Amino acid sequence: MANAESKSSIILAGQAPEEATPGCWSCGTMRAAHFCSACGKVQPPKPVDYFTFFGFPRKLDLDTAVLEKEFYALSRRLHPDVFGRANDQERAWSLEQSSMLNDAYRTLKDPIKRSEYLLRLEGIELEEQSKQATEKARATGELKKQVVPPDLLEEVFELNLHLEELRMQKKMGEDDPALLEEIGKAKLSLEEKHDALVNELKTEWKEWDESEDESTRRKALDKMLDVLNRRNYIRNLLRDVNEAME
Amino acid sequence: MSSDLIVGIDLGTTNSLVAYMQGDSPVVIPGADGLSLVPSVVALDEDSQVIVGNAARRYLIETPERAVYSIKRLMGRGLEDIQEELKLFPFQLADDLNEGEVLRIKIGDRTYTPPEISGLILRQLKRNAERFFGAPVTQAVITVPAYFNDAQRQASKDAGRIAGLNVLRLVNEPTAASLAYGLDKKKNGIVAVYDLGGGTFDISILKLHDGIFEVIATNGDTHLGGDDIDNLLIAIAVDDIRGDLGLDLRKGARHNSESVARIRQAVIEAKIALSLQPTAKLDVELPDGKKYQREVSREMFEQMIQPIIDRTVGPCKQALKDAGLKPEQIDEVVLVGGSTRIPKVRRLVQDLFGRVPHTDLNPDEVVALGAAVQANILGGGSEMTQDMLLLDVTPLSLGIEVAGGVTDKIILRNSTVPASATQYYTTQVDGQTNVAIHVLQGERELARDCRSLARFDLKGIPPMVAGLPRIEVRFLIDANGILRVSAREQRSGQEAEIDVKPTYGLTDEQVENMLLESYDYAEEDFRQRQVIEARQEADTILTVLAKEKKNQAWRELTSEERGSIEALEKSLLDVGRGDDYHAIRAGIDALNQSTMHFAELMMETVVSATLKGKSMDDTGIEEGPQSGHPVAKADFE
Known about the structure:
The structure holds two protein chains of two kinds. Chain A is mainly alpha-helical. Chain A has eight helices and no strands. Chain B has 16 helices and 29 strands.
């Protein structure tokens, strides 16, 4: 009776939901994403995107309180612990569904991850994650080099010099409070820029969420890409600073 | 119904417990001795019988080479990374160990892997539960340190299997403790669990919300615990003794290891006493009647252990950082593990989190009680537990080794489990049918700085031009925190066969064999013991008879009688060298029968000798039934 779903391979970001919706394996009714709406039995996971998984529209301004509530509700029904007494097949599906649930929640909960995910869904890749860059880095064994945002060039150059100096000093066991203060100031400036970028991101969210016009939305995506790239860059830099200062 | 019986087990470094949900609350199941705690000590007695728990403790001192403790420290670990452990613990390894293999420990003249030793402890707990219920127990929830890696977890699961238990779930110890706490308090909020046990330290930060126990971050150190405090104190005592008495206990003679075991016991007692008293006395007997005596004040003790306790601070700070929380945002701190009884530890926790920690729950029992709650949930839940759900995380990032010896992280630490990641591989060479993947756990950049988890060999890839196959590999960390891998070549749709070589672990086949072996062993052990006992009895009888032949009563027997006795004597001597229990038994009985007249004659000699004023010794008769005099033995049987 049941239309056995094709082997439940994990979703690939960017895959759209299937056209034809097979019936519930248990009672035959047209099924919902996770549970049959008629008999309540768990279903094999469908390769849907994370927004669809939660039943949310593909919008970036998300109420995280609502998201959490949904997450808890779905967890209570999908978690393997709840399927202790079910048959092997249902247990396997619960395992897949809950891993998808956790991945989806993790991604949508965090504003940056959410934005990056949406871009991926729309076919846009961030610099850091670009496959080419990754493969090149692996081949040469070097760390991936990110393009420095032009307006930060000077600041970055100076900061890197300071950090080098700090590392040398540490090796020698020296201590230079003036240098530390300089770096501290630079760190603060970067943190401010970081926060500003996050705010800018949220502005672009509105553009994407509220506009009907395709080209406006496209522009919003491009801007988001730029903001995210810069934010990533600054985040990496801040990480270097923190490491050097430890 | 026995199929509903699921117990919760705390398999601890120092002590283990088994518990279950009795109505509304979890309770610990006592052993036959009425005690809740089963020391995680395994020994082989003189007849190579396995002894577990309290009864095994004396062997640690009497015959340390036939006993083992704190085996949890070796679970899922390999030769290279236990070098530190070997310096501090009297573990004796098998001689023929290789890198990357599962460890084997010598106990007496047998070797066991750590999962087998843990399995013996679990078997004891299983028996305690079965005795309590009067029914078989085959399902359990077993706890592990939250910071245990994949190999350590798999070893724990293997141990359960070897003991004949179906391990339904591995639960992280701090999470289990929070279940016991949450069941008790029913409050929402952010809870930090600080778990300092005998060998491991865990810090977990959880969000409790309407029955959902969500772990946000976890961190720890799997070689940090009460044992390290003990070892430090032992080292100081040993140094003292070398200084004061010129005796170097670190040099390997047998009675030195006994002395060190005595010192260890004394040090543990003193440590425990110092939690309640301001001073404690060490008083240890050494070989040659020497004594080591020293008074330790709480102050001195706290100074000595400061560096060990301080090692818990880093993980706590990292966990807070990963959780994105400040100490002030923690609503409650729960203490778990015997070592948290130390006042200094409590003060450290109080300073770290800025609040008085919660100490209502028994730190020795709370983990087992929590495991019992989870067991109840898995069994379908009761009114108390039906709204409860555990959402735990994986403590370590999962990565793949890529070109350049670098780790590519595919699942980050503190990701809620179950968690998955998909990677795509292809072939380098035309017709290549295998792809090798090296999976690691850890936070470092370089593969060599991370823990090797396993090497997966994907086989059965349809031969194609190099670069054409698209092999989708799916990594899934299940609710136990253990990795599963599945792979499929997408163009052909072919499932790849995966050969797993666990690092420092047992293959499924090995575990299955051990399972059967441990049952066979019991049979075998019993039979062997019977043979040993019979042989001993035969020996004694033959020795006594040899002496008795010097008695004048021997000459009073007819030559026929003497002949027949001697024939049976020789026959018993022969059979006694063999393994046939029944033959030995028959030989003993026959000899006893044949010497009855002889024994009577000897008794008459005694009587008359006594009447004449001679002592029993003079008559050449052994004293009493204990010496195995054939007739006397027959009387007392």
